[in-house]
Amino acid sequence: MWGMIATWRMALEGVSEAAELLEKEGNASDAIVRAICAVEDFEYYKSVGYGGLPNEEMEVELDAGYMDGDTFDIGCVGAIKDYANPILIARALSKERVNNFLVGAGAEKYAHRHGFVRKNMLSERAKIHYHNRIVENRDQELKPYAGHDTVGMVCLDTQGHMTAATSTSGLFMKHAGRVGDSPVLGAGFYVDSQVGGASATGFGEDVMKGCVSYEIVRLMKEGMHPQKACDQAVQTFDRELRRRRGKAGDMSLIAMNQKGEWGVSTNIDNFSFVVAGEKQKPTVYLAKKDEAGNSYFEEADEAWMEEYMRVRTAPLAYK
């Protein structure tokens, strides 16, 4: 039995590559890293890796996190610049006895010492997005863009080994040095091979307040199906944020247990995700909510898939 679940349509190609590895009894560590690298390397996805949108100083700062569900090893990087695949650096840090979470210049020095690939991560498309954003807000206070599409994944291999991982460029126009939930253990991701794993995408400043990924795994450990655990964790914390703060940021969570069963819950209207398994080819689903707020899912049709890529690869021009 093997399985994989990931946030957003952008994960499809990476999950498809990982599925080929898992079908041949590859391990969950290599599979999840391969899948996330595929997203990091594709310049048309403007919220992860190369092509990710820059901060307010037009610098691309990347965050990534990795966890091994067998050993609880973790590796995390935050606000790292000029390195091609932050997920590879995060996994390498998980092998260290100490210094597992490095940020900024410290993360870059570690990456340099260990021979990771340097790359200017600011693409021409990202420059155009940045310039146009400045023009659009010339007479207004510049605020971070609301988009924050982290790629997060949970993976189960045929040996029962589970991993979880994330990668993101974070908020567009964020302050230099800002780090969201994605590389933060328990918030952006968490996994225990004896139970299952979860990962988040959304507004990091709010997701961190609830340690939502850990909460989902905790509920699964109590015996909940991943779907019920996701709905309970997301709905409960969404209500709590609204009660205490008057509003709640975007939150979408994915989960998979050690049996390969999965669940998804969201408080937004347009969340897509990818699932693959021993009996299921990599498939994109759209998350919906019924009147009670419970989640249900529809497979994305061909028209939706074509429009998704058309929008992301459309030519850009300076305003």
From TrEMBL:
* Taxonomic superkingdom: Bacteria
TM annotation in the entry? none
Q: Which Pfam families match?
A: Asparaginase_2 (PF01112)
Q: Which Gene3D superfamilies match?
A: (Glycosyl)asparaginase (3.60.20.30)
Under CDD domains, the record lists: Glycosylasparaginase
Instruction: Return the InterPro entries for the record.
Output: Ntn_hydrolases_N, Peptidase_T2
Task: Spell out the SUPFAM superfamilies in the cross-references.
Answer: N-terminal nucleophile aminohydrolases (Ntn hydrolases)
Protein name per its UniProtKB record = N(4)-(Beta-N-acetylglucosaminyl)-L-asparaginase
Q: Which organism is it from?
A: Massilicoli timonensis
